[in-house]
Amino acid sequence: MGEIVLAAKITHVPSIWLSIQPGKHFGIRRPAELALTEVGRRARELGADTFLIADTHWMNSIGFHLNGKPRHQATYVSHELPHFIHDLAYDYAGDPELAELIREEIVAGGQKARVHTYQDLGLEYATLVPMYFMNQDAGVRVLPIGCNIYSTVEENRRIGEALLRAVLRSDRKVAFLASGSLSHAFPPNEIAESLLDDVSSELNRNVDHAVLEMWGEGRISEFLDMLPDYNERCTGEGAMADTAMLFGLLGWRAYNGRGEQLCPYFGSSGTGQVVVDFPVPAFHTT
Ligand SMILES: [Fe+2]
C-alpha cells in the first residue's frame, strides 16, 4: 500500500534560478533556495520515491493531464521569460505506473484525464526549478500533473482526492508538491522590473499574510471557504488548482494540520511566494 509521505506548497519563481547564477541577482532568493532544499531533504528522509507535482506552468485548457514519460530528459528554456531561465539541462526518471493509476482514479471519479508519453512533452519550470534543489542526484521519480486554467476549486478538490486514492493503490512513497504562487498579480510591464522583490498590491500582500496565518493555525476549513474568492480576486496562478489539489489530497475540510512555513513570505515580480510544509494525516499512511 502506498503512502503520501510529504505534502507542501512551494514556490518555483524564476528569480530563484537567477539567484544561483553569477551576476547582480546572485543570492537574492537564498531563503527560498534553502527552503526548497529542506523540502527535498525531508522527502528523502521520509523515503519518497516519487515527486508528484501539481505544476501551475503546465497550463491545460481542457481536461486533466499527466506527463507519464518513463524518462524526462531535455534542455529547457522558458518561452515566457527566456532571459531568466535557459540552458537548464535535466534528466529524471518518470513514473508511468503511478500516472496510469492516477488517470484511472480521476476517471473513476467522473472526470477526464489522460497520460502522455510524447517525446517532445517536456517539463515546465514549476517542476524544474524545485527539482533542481530537491532532487539533485535525480534519485526520486518525477511525475507532473498539469493545472487546468479553466477548472474550478471543486473540480481540483476531486482531483486531489483521486491523487490520494491512486497513491494508496500504488506501492509508492509520494511527496506531493503544490507548485504555485499565493497571490499572482503581475505588475504592468512598464514597472515590472522595479517590483522584482515586491508584491504588486498591498491588498494582495495582506490577504496572503492572512492566508499564511490560517494555514499556520490549522484554520483550513475557513481558508477553503474563501479559496474561490481568493483565486479570483488575487489572480490565482493556474486557477490555484495546485492548492485545491493539495487540500483535496489532505482531506479538505476534515484536515486541520498546521502548516510549517519554511521561508519568509516574499514578493517576486509582483507575486506572493512562500514554502509551507503540511503534516500528512495518519490515515494517509500505512
Ligand atoms: Fe509561476
From TrEMBL:
GO molecular function ontology, one term from the record: 3,4-dihydroxyphenylacetate 2,3-dioxygenase activity
Q: Does the keyword Isomerase apply?
A: no
Q: What is its EC number?
A: 1.13.11.15
Tell me which UniProt keywords the record has, alphabetically.
Answer: Oxidoreductase
Origin superkingdom: Bacteria
Name all Extradiol ring-cleavage dioxygenase class III enzyme subunit B domain ranges.
7-278
Q: Which Pfam families match?
A: LigB
Protein name per the record: 3,4-dihydroxyphenylacetate 2,3-dioxygenase
The protein's organism comes out as Nonomuraea spiralis
**Name of encoding gene:** hpaD
